[in-house]
Amino acid sequence: KAGVTQTPRYLIKTRGQQVTLSCSPISGHRSVSWYQQTPGQGLQFLFEYFSETQRNKGNFPGRFSGRQFSNSRSEMNVSTLELGDSALYLCASSTQTGRGETQYFGPGTRLLVL
Amino acid sequence: DAKTTQPTSMDCAEGRAANLPCNHSTISGNEYVYWYRQIHSQGPQYIIHGLKNNETNEMASLIITEDRKSSTLILPHATLRDTAVYYCIVRVRNALIFGKGTTLSVSS
């Protein structure tokens, strides 16, 4: 079974621009979560989507948003990019939503904001 | 969510067992203990998880103390490819809350 895929793998943007990242979960998985990893803050939870609904949200500004489609694929968008948004953005999928459901991560999208 | 405490770094000789400890003294009864590892900025890799009982899979064993305040991840025969950052996570909601983890260095 194919794993979680994320596109693009690398991205360079300038301050003020916006960016959209894509995540395709493992086949049959309906929950998708997004995480940001930076050297200073480590791995931080952004939000989770299940059945096209946001179920849980981390402590990030409104510039960070996401959505999920009926085929469970998800996108996250960051508007008005700042230098501090440079990070590895990770997507994880699980079959269901819930504390006992194992999340499987994709390879990530590395975003550089200049 | 309960917080976890892990040593910053550990060393292990190739072929020996690697025992990675984790303290989670404030854990609640319905919180799972998860272990992931991350190799050189790749996506975190799921290793194992448990609630109360000890668990074993093809990658590792998870030993949880009876009071559930601490746990140990055991890699029975460490190889050079096991060099990574290992995260112990206590999870009650849908989100995984990562700490700083333990950097395990396996050497020959």
What brief labels describe this structure?
heterodimer; A: 114 residues; mainly beta; 7-stranded mixed β-sheet; 4-stranded antiparallel β-sheet; 11 strands; B: 108 residues; 5-stranded mixed β-sheet; 0% helix
What is this entry, summarized?
In chain A, 0% of the residues lie in helices and 53% in strands. Chain A is mostly beta strands.
Topology overview:
The complex is a heterodimer of chains A (114) and B (108).
Chain A: E1 5-7, E2 10-13, E3 19-24, E4 31-38, E5 42-50, E6 53-57, E7 64-68, E8 74-78, E9 87-94, E10 104-105, E11 109-113
Parallel strand pairs in A: 2-11
Antiparallel strand pairs in A: 1-3, 3-8, 4-5, 4-9, 5-6, 7-8, 9-10, 9-11
Chain B: E1 9-13, E2 18-23, E3 32-38, E4 45-50, E5 55-56, E6 61-64, E7 70-75, E8 84-91, E9 102-107
Parallel strand pairs in B: 1-9
Antiparallel strand pairs in B: 2-7, 3-4, 3-8, 5-6, 6-7, 8-9
Could you please describe the fold and organization of this structure?
The complex is a heterodimer of chains A (114) and B (108). With 114 residues, chain A is an all-beta fold. Chain A has strands at residues 5-7, 10-13, 19-24, 31-38, 42-50, 53-57, 64-68, 74-78, 87-94, 104-105, 109-113. Chain A has no helices and eleven strands. In chain A, strands 2, 4, 5, 6, 9, 10 and 11 form a seven-stranded mixed β-sheet that branches. In chain A, a hairpin with a 5-residue loop joins strand 7 (64-68) and strand 8 (74-78). With 108 residues, chain B is mainly β. Chain B has strands spanning 9-13, 18-23, 32-38, 45-50, 55-56, 61-64, 70-75, 84-91, 102-107. A five-stranded mixed β-sheet of chain B has the order 1-9-8-3-4, with no helix packed on it. A four-stranded antiparallel β-sheet of chain B has the order 2-7-6-5, with no helix packed on it. Chain B starts with 8 loop residues before the first strand and ends with a strand. Classes of the chains: A mainly beta (114), B mainly beta (108).
